[in-house]
Design brief:
The protein has 5 helices and 16 strands. By secondary structure, it is α+β, with helices and mostly antiparallel strands. The protein has 2 domains: 120 residues; 137 residues, Nucleoside Triphosphate Pyrophosphohydrolase (Alpha-Beta Complex), CATH 3.90.79. The longest helix has 18 residues. The two termini are 34 Å apart. It binds zinc ion.
Length: 300
């Protein structure tokens, strides 16, 4: 999946003091657009982001480079306005690079740049949205010891936003409940999904979302895996479960355009090694961990 960049090692320890080196990399975002260089396919690389020396050469008027994290020997920085309270500056264009859609990062080589990009974007959004204290309205300061924003007036501390959500593979013997979202950029097939609400366990969210989106009761809920999804500040929790009783679907039409049972043999998705949803669909198709259901299928 996108976070599986091994053998390379992701280090997210915060350091306010780490000085950018010339060949470290910088992410510059304008909304959901990211500054990248493209058109290098013959080199085995789809995209690149500017080096520190290129950004410095273009000028850092009123801006600075905020250290984010390191992958192997490369540190990644975020171009930011120097004063959190000043009017948000538009980041510059660096010669040789142009702003492209964030989705460029999803299937790019090198793979570690996809993961670095989604994680940098999550931090960009959090810094952008926490310039002022939510408690007293004062201008926040960058944390010195931890990755946070601190209010110098009332002491309020804001940490990066991480929103837990569930992805649910609902099964009925040889069939998997598959969906399509209504009105989203992503056009492929998906699984039941939704955010954890206050006071819920992950399992509570699974039961509620499957009922809301498909009108089905479920049993035998099993946790599978998790995935950080920085494009939307999510921490995705994957679960499988089985339908309990009535299998007739009542689809929630506001969120979904399709919700249907799909037989294993009719699942045409290929393994992309990127999203948890795709991995869970392909894992069911291949029968891994579903010995019980497979026996049912053979006996039909
Ligand atoms: Zn405050």
């Amino acid at each position: 999946m996108i976070q599986d960049i091994g053998p390379e090692v992701f280090r997210n320890e915060y350091s306010r003091k780490r000085e950018p080196e010339e060949e470290d990399r910088v992410f510059l975002f304008r909304g959901r657009n990211v500054l990248v260089r493209t058109g290098m396919e013959e080199t085995g690389t789809d995209i690149a982001v500017p080096m520190v020396k290129e950004v410095k050469a273009a000028g850092l008027d009123g801006a600075f480079l905020q250290y984010l994290f390191t992958i192997e020997e490369t540190a990644y920085y975020l171009w930011m306005s120097r004063e959190p309270g000043s009017a948000a500056q538009e980041p510059p264009v660096i010669p040789g690079y142009e702003y492209g859609r964030l989705s460029l990062l999803r299937h790019s080589r090198p793979r570690d740049l996809s993961f670095a990009g989604e994680t940098a974007y999550q931090l960009y959004g959090w810094y952008r949205d926490n310039r002022f204290c939510g408690r007293c309205g004062a201008v926040m300061r960058f944390g010195e010891k931890e990755r946070n924003m601190v209010c110098p007036v009332c002491g309020n501390v804001s940490y990066p936003k991480i929103m837990p959500a569930v992805i649910v593979g609902v099964t009925d013997g040889d069939r998997l409940l598959m969906t399509r979202y209504r009105g989203r950029e992503y056009r492929g097939r998906a699984l039941i999904a939704g955010f954890c609400e206050i006071g819920e366990t992950g399992e509570d969210t699974v039961r509620r979302e499957v009922m809301e989106e498909a009108g089905l009761r479920v049993k035998n809920i099993r946790y599978y895996k998790s995935q950080p999804w920085g494009f939307d500040s999510d921490l995705l929790l994957g679960y499988y479960c089985e339908v309990d009783g009535d299998t007739d679907i009542t689809m929630e039409e506001d969120e979904l355009s399709v919700a249907e049972w799909v037989r294993r043999a009719d699942i045409t998705e290929t393994f992309e090694n990127m999203s948890l949803t795709n991995e869970m669909i392909c894992r069911f198709r291949d029968g891994a961990g579903f010995a019980h259901e497979k026996r049912d299928a053979v006996s039909e």
